[in-house]
Design goal:
56% of the residues lie in helices and 6% in strands. Helix 1 runs antiparallel to helix 2, helix 2 packs antiparallel against helix 3 and helix 3 runs antiparallel to helix 4. The N terminus is likely disordered. It is mainly alpha-helical. The chain is globular. It has five helices and three strands, in the order E-H-H-H-H-E-E-H. It has one domain.
């Protein structure tokens, strides 16, 4: 079945999507606050800085044989997932700056950076969702969950209908060309697994059904 006849509307798990990786170079990157493109980069860096402490967060793992409640177990899992997202976000920002420096220095052809910005927005939305779900704040958790879901729904549409031949997905450590049917299939499976998990967690920590 061709891609044009398919439409998948599911909530996605965090996955890495990037343009073909560029070799990291030590280049000077001077950003001008009067340049709208530079300011977008600067604002992204400023926003990302507040998530960096999560990378080194000391998360105590339950000891073998330790009796903990389901709430405490899920909170531990959420902190672990949030930390992983912070690491992936840092890697995404590093790659963004590297690509932008290469373009500004004329080393590679100017290209769209939308993939990096979407990855940034999806990861920060997910981190905020995990934080508020962990703390039992239903209103804010719902806001960021729906925001994350919307971003990822648009991502699915892009995979199905746009030219993604220059991009790839990394799902469970497996790198797949983004324009392959296998990428959509594996992503859909990961989507459902995450939705099922967050649905269970929401019921335990919030006590209601997760928003649709």
């Amino acid at each position: 079945m061709g891609k044009q006849s398919r439409r998948i509307r599911q909530h996605t798990a965090p996955v890495k999507q990037q343009t073909a990786p560029v070799k990291e170079l030590h280049l000077t990157l001077k950003l001008n606050r009067n340049d709208p493109s530079d300011m977008k980069i600067l604002n992204t860096i400023k926003t990302s800085d507040k998530y960096k402490p999560l990378i080194s967060e000391d998360i105590r793992e339950p000891r073998d044989g330790e009796r903990i409640t389901m709430k405490d177990y899920y909170k531990f899992r959420l902190r672990r997932i949030r930390q992983k997202q912070a690491v992936l976000n840092y890697e995404n920002i590093t790659e963004l700056l590297n690509a932008y420096a290469l373009m500004k220095n004329g080393k590679i052809q100017v290209q769209s950076l939308d993939t990096y910005f979407r990855n940034f927005n999806s990861k920060t939305s997910l981190i905020n969702f995990l934080t508020h779900l962990h703390n039992g704040n239903a209103d804010k958790a719902s806001h960021y969950y729906l925001k994350w879901r919307g971003i990822m729904s648009s991502f699915i549409d892009e995979l199905l209908f746009n030219d993604c031949s220059s991009e790839y997905l990394e799902i469970n450590g497996k790198r797949i060309d983004a324009d392959k049917d296998e990428a959509v299939r594996l992503l859909a499976e990961q989507i459902q697994a995450d939705v099922d998990f967050y649905t269970k967690v929401w019921r335990v920590l919030i006590g209601t059904n997760i928003p649709e």
